[in-house]
Amino acid sequence: MKARIHVVGSPEVDAWLDKNVSFSDVKKRYDIIYEEQDFMVLLYHPVTISFDPNVIKHVVQCCIASEINFVVIKCNNGTNYETILKEYMQFKHNPHFRYLPSLRFEYFVSLIKHSNGLIGNSRNGVRETPVLGISSLNNGNRQQNRSTEARSIIHIPDHREMPAATLKVMKNIPRVEPVTEFGSSACAARFGEFIRKCDLSAIYTQK
Fold first, then answer.
1. CATH number of the domain to which 100 belongs
2. How do residues 54-83 score in pLDDT, each as one tens digit?
3. Number of separate domains in the chain
4. Any domain includes 176
5. Non-local CB neighbours of 34 within 8 Å, separated by 6+ positions
């Protein structure tokens, strides 16, 4: 059966490594005043089983105390999301924060590419940012057993071990060598090549 499995990579990686839209277009469309690599992205989602409201409270307080510019993206609407949005209200009228309820995928990719890094508990911080060599801070256990050992990732399982000083350090971490654990570019080309060469009539197991 192994002979029938062909690893071509992830189409998402192709999208992340593409040129996408320019950062100036992102700024214009979403009214972002920060310059390239002068902000970080906060993307924190609710944890259904072991949600602790003190975690997001601490994360928000650290972001404010750091005095770093942040583009904050609304969390998904899973259980307990209201608690996260309530804490985000502290960002209101603070010039260091730009809150976005949503944004188009290609604009999101460009936003991450031109940031100083991503913090939170999103899969983007353990799967996509390593492809770009951009630093990320993975907080909590939402990505447990899904993360990579890429040098660009800072794992902080316990939120109490994340001071504002850590964010200030992250802002100045240089880009590192990209990690292709989840695939490299040209996935679509490899998939197309496989389809052209594959003889499905020779496979007896059908559905």
1. 3.40.50.2000
2. 889 999 999 999 999 999 999 988 888 999
3. 1
4. yes
5. 27, 69, 71, 98
Which domain does 98 fall in, by range? 18-183
Residue 39 structure tokens:
């902000």
Q: What are phi and psi of 73, to 5 degrees?
A: -105, 135
Number of H helices, E strands in the chain: 8, 6
Q: Which region holds residue 80: left if phi is over 0, alpha if psi is between -120 and 50, else beta? A: left
Q: Is 7 exposed, middle or buried (0-12, 13-18, 19+ CB in 10 A)?
A: exposed
The alpha-carbon radius of gyration of the chain (Å, integer) is 19
In angstroms, rounded to a whole number, what is the distance separating the alpha carbons of residues 77 and 67?
A: 28
Q: Distance between alpha carbon 200 and the CA centroid of its chain, in Å?
A: 37
Distance CA 126, CA 123 (A): 5
- Tell me the pLDDT tens digit for each residue of 101-134: 999 999 999 999 999 999 988 878 777 888 888 8
pTM of the model: 0.80
9 within domain boundaries: no
Answer yes or no: are the C-beta atoms of 81 and 101 closer than 8 Å.
no
Q: Rounded CA gap, 72 and 120, in Å?
A: 10
More confident of the two residues 33 and 2: 33
Give the DSSP letter of residue 182.
T
By the 8 A CB rule, do 143 and 121 touch? yes
Asked if residue 21 lies in contact with residue 112, where contact means CB atoms within 8 angstroms, the answer is: no
